[in-house]
Amino acid sequence: MSNRLTVLTSKSVFTGTEDQPFEGFVAVRGNRIEAVGSAGEVDSFLAQADEVIDCGDRTVMPGLVDVHTFYTGWALRSLGADLSEASDVDEVVALLRLWKDAHLDCAAAFGHDLPASLAEGAENEKTAAALDDAFGDVPVVCFTPGAETCVLNAAASERYGFTPEACYAEKTWRMMRDFLALPEVRAGYSDYMAMLNARGVTAIKEMAFDDYYGFADEMARREESGELTVRVSMMSQPVGAGANLSYARAARDRFQGPFVRFSGFNRMTDRGVWAGLAEMIDPYEETADAGAAGKTVVEEPEWGLIEDELRAIDAEGFRYSLHCQGDGAVRHTVALYASLPRDEHGVMLRRHAITDLENSDPEDLALFGKLGGICEVYPQILTLDKREDCLSMMRRQIGEVRLLHSWNRRGMEDAGCTVCCGTDLPLLIPSLGESVFSACGGFFADGLSVNEGNTLTIAELLRAWTAGGAYDLMREDELGTLEAGKLADICVLDRDVFGLDYHDACDLAVDMTMSDGRIVFDRNKEV
Description:
By secondary structure, this protein is α/β, with parallel strands linked by helices. The protein is 32% helix and 21% strand.
């Protein structure tokens, strides 16, 4: 390990241990932080520094931790042949043939960026029929831009079992064994990490379906070869079968390095309030859509399976993250967690979490805080919609009073829960600026606000993105704050984040990212 000393100076150093930044420095030797101090203490470090980086008034802070990502979803955006320039089905077929001829070992043919004009409405069936004629029993899947929908031929529908209307990660798991083995998908993890580093992210909790369908070997190879610039805590999300504890035990023993660990399990419970698919405490309003009126839930979560899994997972020393959107699902989950073994202070022995919490009752948040619960929130989520497009639907579903309990990060913080930040990547791409805009300002994409009393302060949000995430990864002794002895995972923003007007926050960017003491992104230089 290099003994090189790098000193970063700034008028805005945010360590995460205090609410306000200060003028000072961070000294990094090798891959560790050697010292953090005020401007008056920097001279002795400057005298021995191999490199000094003057950040001016730009905020220096810990690297960001994204606690909910899916490389499997990100990979679909560029999987297979590039179909973006195809003007008709014949060109699509020709491009797919070229790709398949170069990938004879692959059981299927894939394409990305299929023009919407060839995938919408009746055109979807016409394109699928053409793929049937051209490829016969070879499965073919073509995703539209962003992998939001797709076209499948009959062979692909039979082999993979999903539809154009439901092609998100939890549905495409049968396809993972085929596409995760592709050399370009394995190589693409480098671009994925570079994208995360450019946004200040130095650690993630990644959803690795079932046994990760062979991709765990790629993670092991990359760690051994020193290629990783993002620390990864893998979570197995059971989709093909129930929670595989034997795999989890083997993965925990296998991955104990500085960059790759195995953490536990993740599972969905309900779905969105806005769609009428969340489990609520009280029934949906009479004006609700999707057949939800008068019901508390339309599709009952597999609570029996979830409870059995939870108890087995907890007994083995693993942690469980349950994805809940309605206040009923949150209440049910908090009750399950409360039934687990706890310490003398009433805190759960394992670091179990709830993800998303679109709508939650304050009483349940208070209990979850006492249990030592972790809330994995999506701080950018409001940026996906205009205010009334979202709220008018939710008012019909749950009414104005319950709407006040939506995106209640303030309630989570005040209840003593550990709040941390995820993106559900690729649903959202990490952006600290969008997070400030949405989670501190309470703004939708059009700049109109909602439930401003439920928002976080800048310091609370930064801690959620850093110290909260490190705690969620069970690495708070090494990561998440700028303190002497901790690993040097650091990001430098393009301005002083504490001087931002929330309305103007979306274009906040990262100028530099350091991972394990090495600069892995510099906006002004080629790394």
